[in-house]
Design a protein that fits this description.
about 200 residues; alpha/beta; seven-stranded mixed β-sheet; two-stranded antiparallel sheet; 7 helices
Length: about 200
């Protein structure tokens, strides 16, 4: 009985902490509350820092092809340029826990569900549009980390594993297909592939 009482008290304390953390942002609280509906396949996937992915992204680039506006599946999102608000977080769920969301109003969810394009994020401290960068099929966030994390969690909860960010600014880089093919085929044979990058930030494996 005592163990149950202690567990219940701990759960109530956790709920209180969550409410306090988001009391200045009803929009963020709504996203947080929606996480139960979000597929674990999205919100519990690993999220890396861009610099940790250099050998698999920037190091394989051939040239920058273009800047486009495209629908980007959440399953293609692999990294962030920084996570200074939650340095130890490694999933979308844990990254969301570190956000404060001050000034995020009722328009927040509508922004995530819209064709984003060059639209200004409706929050006082937001600067510049949301910008993503694609290396082949791997996509990282270049600008707008906070809104990006919240948007991933919200869209995953609302639309499931097929969710997409719509008409997002995307810097597209072509990659060295032959190098990618060699590594993929080696993995297909059960081999371990080690990749690193040289002084010119070019991938070697």
């Amino acid at each position: 009985m005592m163990r149950y009482a202690n567990a219940r008290a701990e759960a109530m304390r956790d709920e209180s902490v969550s409410a306090d953390a988001h009391r200045d942002s009803p929009a963020l609280q709504r996203i947080y509350d929606a996480l139960d509906a979000a597929p674990s396949a999205i919100v519990d996937r690993p999220v890396a820092l861009d610099r940790e992915l250099t050998a698999a992204t920037f190091g394989l680039r051939r040239r920058r092809e273009d800047r486009i506006y495209a629908d980007v599946p959440l399953t293609a999102l692999v990294g962030l340029f920084h996570r200074t608000w939650a340095p130890d977080a490694t999933t979308w769920r844990s990254l969301l826990d570190g956000l404060h969301g001050r000034g995020w109003g009722s328009e927040t969810q509508a922004y995530f569900e819209s064709e984003i394009g060059d639209s200004h994020f409706p929050a006082p401290a937001a600067a510049y549009p949301l910008i993503l960068r694609a290396y082949g099929g791997a996509v990282v966030c270049v600008n707008g980390m906070h809104r990006f994390v919240a948007g991933v969690c919200w869209l995953a909860a609302q639309q499931g594993v097929e969710a997409q960010m719509r008409k997002v600014e995307l810097q597209v880089y072509d990659v060295k297909r032959a190098a990618v093919t060699v590594m993929v085929e080696a993995q297909g044979r059960g081999e371990t592939v080690y990749a690193a990058f040289n002084a010119n930030c070019e991938t070697v494996s």
